[in-house]
Amino acid sequence: MRCAVASKVPTSYHANNPANVVPVSDAGLAESAEPRSLTKPTALGEAADQIPKKLNSGKSARQPAAAEAQAHRSAMQTSLPEMAAYLQEVLGQRLTAHMADVSDPQTVSRWIKGNRKPRPDSEQRIVASYQVFQLLLSAETPQTIRAWFLGLNPQLDDSSPAQAIREGQFTQTMGAARAFLVSG
What's the average model confidence in pLDDT over 13-36? Predict the structure, then answer.
């Protein structure tokens, strides 16, 4: 299955159609409340079409080592513009910019279009965010993962994973993702 950039977030989630996600609001980080397509992006062409929508489709998190290896492989084989496009699609532009520690959300669009390259620290944050998202996608829906990124997390001293990534706590965030998968 493939994922791509579209312009809006759906307002409902249907169990038989996991491509639909529900917007989660946190300090104005939610995007529009209209349906969002998780198909090939029109603005990015074929590049974003290569991004996997879900790892280990239909498998549970009982094989965490395999899911971790696949998430890592995906992060290493996906270009930064593709990762930024994917995160912008599933998490929203503001949340993606927040995690990358950039003040202007439009900066994410500039990375996607290739008009600008991120600072090395922002690039690390995008790669870490993408890898964590891909790991969680092995067992969870995009809706649940977005809520996980925004919610207070006991593994992170009640900070949100999005904030932890912004602060450079990549190892701790990956550990929190593993704990979330294990707790089912």
Answer: 39
The answer, yes or no, to whether residue 61 has pLDDT greater than 60, is: no
156 SS3 class: helix
Q: What are 160's two structure tokens?
A: 């949100």
CB 104 within 8 A of CB 97: yes
Kindly list the domain boundaries of the chain, sorted by start residue.
48-183
> Residue 65 has what pLDDT?
86
pTM reported for the whole predicted model: 0.69
Question: CA-to-CA distance for 99 and 163, rounded, in angstroms?
Answer: 6
The strand pairing partners of 113, in sequence order, are none
Indicate the residue type of 154.
Answer: P
Distance from C-alpha of 34 to C-alpha of 50, rounded to nearest angstrom: 25
Residue type, 67: A
Distance, in Å, from the CA atom of 85 to the CA atom of 68, rounded to the nearest integer, reads 21
